Amino acid sequence: MEGDKPTTLMCTVVAVDHTNFCYRVCSVCERTLPDNINNTTSSICKYCNFNNAFNRGSSSSKRLFRVLMSIASETKVFVVICFDRVARVLFGCSADEFFDFAKLHPLSAVTAGKILEGEMLRVTLSKPKNGNAQHLRVVSVVPLRSGFRPAIETLRELYGARVGT
């Protein structure tokens, strides 16, 4: 990538990290929340509850995608990160829906990675705005295969799951 301008390229998905595909945020302000499930306050946003003192506990949490993957262009292999808006195109559902599906079908995250491997995509990459971030961001994605199906559709078919289960 040259300079700070986003770059669009054709690529192939080489691998998808299935170990940590989402993170928790406040459903009101979308600030990142701790992943510690054992702590009962982990799903309550301290910021929203502080500002909303009369209605404590009103904020809840949701999950957003944060998918790390390797893509290959003609000349280079990149490790990139796809956040929620882009990952929804590839997965075909919300991170909460995928998380719930993965709880019922434990190998579905691994299988989703295998489903997406080899997919041809047109991606737009940008450099991270945060100085501590390591990976290029995928800011848009367009699957190039005419028969592309989001991962959740194939997973439902493989596991025999109906929509809504």
Automatic annotation (TrEMBL):
Q: What InterPro entries does the entry give?
A: NA-bd_OB-fold, Rep_factor-A_C
Domain (Replication factor A C-terminal): give its ranges.
8-103
Source domain of life is Eukaryota
Which Pfam families does this entry report, sorted A to Z?
Rep_fac-A_C
SUPFAM superfamilies per record: Nucleic acid-binding proteins (SSF50249)
Q: Return the protein name.
A: Replication factor A C-terminal domain-containing protein
Q: Which organism is it from?
A: Nyssa sinensis
